[in-house]
């Protein structure tokens, strides 16, 4: 068994069994059993004591093989999916197998070709490992848990290597991003602090609209967007950033959208969970997306703040809250897709399908056939379900999901792994779909500015003046995009 020369102070003394992982490993060097000499190159040093880091324990199985344990979410041992850690002190050409042995889920995209992300000091761009080096299987040695094993060869002694479940997107990165936007002094971009998390991190609220729409007494059509209520779902932040970047741009579509609509965006609903490297919960172990019915100002302050604002807008006669979209990432499905609500009113139900159908026309990675509408009891505390019940028939509430792994383009069978850029592109396409929904296309033509054509754009009989409601001939969704998966990944250079 391995010896520890140093452990995280918060890790507690007993990390000797699966149920006693208290904190992240901190510069933890693994020495071979019985080894008494000085540490050498090749005695790997593991670390997860950094923002969004997660690795709870390391056991050396043999010279080449290590069992790695995900640190469970703070105050909630049920969730163990996100990992993010570094390895240093490697030897050139050192080959290892890492087994991640305590996932809390059984179904996983690892079965469909997903692979962990890796980067290193000299190659700072995240890449996916080749899927051929990744195995996902039920293991008798670990309580029959599903184990993900991957083989890796370290090639540069001076490099620190970092491995993660998906592209990380930290709270600090998000704050820097917003700070930079603020410095640009755009008169259509506003940032305010809507509240603080339990650990006193910022809950940011952005408003993007033409200043005219904010003057006293102006009628507002509001699109409300939230993200990262589940902290390990990092693709949510890339999609959200794509939406924001597009809306604040000088693109003619963005200008028209700002003129007609007010975008309210709370991109990080669970900043503590993001900071801590949790997968699903807040600092106190709450899945915030199950507490919309009755959020507490002290236990769920960020959720409480957002809910109060939404209710206040709903009660304002000058404000029409038209869309609520909550952005998540999905650990077993491909593509982007949506969840919506079921209503007794057939016409309302039909109208709700319009936005996802239009989005499907604009985004090649978005699948209408994977989009579904439900009222499962287990989802009653979600934002989408709660607000769907609160808001009236003119509002639409969706969960936007995007795969942690890949999308399949209609008509093909090849899975295209998502990149950070592809997630942001989905965000841009979500934003531009509001142009179609509100039939604002004539405004673009009026501006007579050359614009890139939307993918598969067809002239639709849009009418002016603008009317809200079902487009009379909105396009039909594409065929089912789910199909078998191509496991090739040419992108790896490790
Ligand atoms: Zn989620």
UniProtKB/TrEMBL annotation:
Top-rank taxon, per record: Eukaryota
Coiled-coil region list: none
One of the GO biological process terms: negative regulation of cell population proliferation
UniProtKB keywords: Carboxypeptidase, Cell projection, Cytoplasm, Cytoskeleton, Golgi apparatus, Hydrolase, Metal-binding, Metalloprotease, Protease, Zinc
GO MF terms held by the record: metallocarboxypeptidase activity; tubulin binding; zinc ion binding
Pfam families referenced in this protein's UniProt entry, alphabetically: Pepdidase_M14_N (PF18027), Peptidase_M14 (PF00246)
SMART domains membership: Zn_pept
GO cellular component terms, A-Z: axon cytoplasm; centriole; ciliary basal body; cytosol; Golgi apparatus
Residue ranges, annotated region (Disordered): 466-494
Enzyme Commission code: 3.4.17.24
Names of the cofactor(s): Zn(2+)
Localization in the cell: Cytoplasm, Cytoskeleton, Cilium basal body; Cytoplasm, Cytoskeleton, Microtubule organizing center, Centrosome, Centriole; Cytoplasm, Cytosol; Golgi apparatus
Active site feature: 401
Family the entry assigns: Belongs to the peptidase M14 family.
Assembly: Interacts with MYLK.
Descriptive protein name: Cytosolic carboxypeptidase 6
């Amino acid at each position: 068994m391995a010896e520890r020369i140093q452990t995280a102070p918060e890790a507690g003394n007993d990390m000797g069994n699966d149920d006693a992982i208290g904190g992240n490993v901190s510069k933890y060097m693994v020495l071979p059993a019985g080894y008494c000499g000085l540490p050498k190159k090749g005695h790997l040093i593991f670390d997860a004591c950094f923002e969004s880091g997660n690795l709870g324990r390391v056991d050396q199985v043999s010279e080449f093989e290590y069992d790695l344990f995900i640190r469970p979410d703070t105050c909630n041992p049920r969730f163990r999916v996100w990992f993010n850690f570094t390895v240093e002190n490697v030897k050139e050409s050192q080959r290892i197998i890492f087994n991640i042995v305590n996932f809390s889920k059984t179904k996983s995209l690892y079965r469909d070709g997903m692979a962990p992300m890796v980067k290193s000091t000299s190659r700072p761009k995240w890449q996916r490992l080749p899927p051929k080096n990744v195995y996902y299987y039920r293991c008798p040695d670990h309580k029959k848990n599903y184990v993900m094993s991957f083989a890796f060869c370290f090639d540069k002694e001076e490099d620190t290597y970092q491995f993660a479940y998906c592209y990380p997107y930290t709270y600090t990165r998000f704050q820097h991003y917003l700070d930079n936007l603020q410095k640009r002094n755009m008169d259509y971009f506003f940032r305010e602090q809507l509240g603080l998390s339990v650990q006193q991190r910022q809950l940011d609220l952005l408003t993007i609209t033409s200043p005219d729409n904010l003057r006293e007494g102006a009628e507002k059509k509001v699109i409300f967007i939230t993200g990262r209520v589940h902290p390990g779902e990092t693709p949510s932040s890339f999609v959200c950033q794509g939406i924001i970047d597009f809306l604040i741009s000088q693109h003619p579509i963005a200008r028209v959208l700002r003129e007609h609509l007010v975008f309210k965006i709370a991109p990080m609903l669970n900043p503590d969970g993001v900071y801590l490297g949790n997968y699903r919960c807040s600092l106190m172990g709450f899945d915030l997306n199950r507490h919309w019915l009755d959020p507490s100002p002290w236990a769920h302050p960020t959720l409480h703040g957002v809910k109060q604002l939404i209710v206040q807008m709903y009660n304002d006669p000058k404000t029409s809250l038209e869309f609520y979209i909550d952005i998540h990432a999905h650990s077993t499905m491909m593509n982007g897709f949506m969840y919506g609500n079921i209503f007794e009113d057939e016409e309302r139900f039909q109208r709700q399908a319009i936005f996802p159908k239009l989005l499907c026309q604009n985004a090649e990675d978005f699948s209408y056939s994977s989009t579904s509408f439900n009222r499962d009891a287990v989802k009653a505390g979600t934002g989408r379900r709660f607000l769907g019940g609160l808001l009236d028939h003119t509002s639409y509430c969706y969960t936007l999901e995007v795969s942690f792994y890949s999308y399949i383009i209609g008509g093909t069978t090849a899975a295209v792994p998502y990149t950070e850029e592809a997630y942001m592109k989905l965000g841009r396409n979500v934003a531009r779909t509001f142009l179609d929904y509100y039939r604002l296309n004539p405004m673009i033509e009026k501006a007579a500015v050359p614009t890139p054509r939307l993918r598969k754009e067809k002239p639709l009989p849009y009418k002016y003046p603008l009317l809200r409601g079902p487009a009379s001939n909105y396009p039909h969704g594409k065929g089912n995009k789910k199909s078998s998966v191509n496991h090739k990944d040419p992108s790896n250079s490790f």
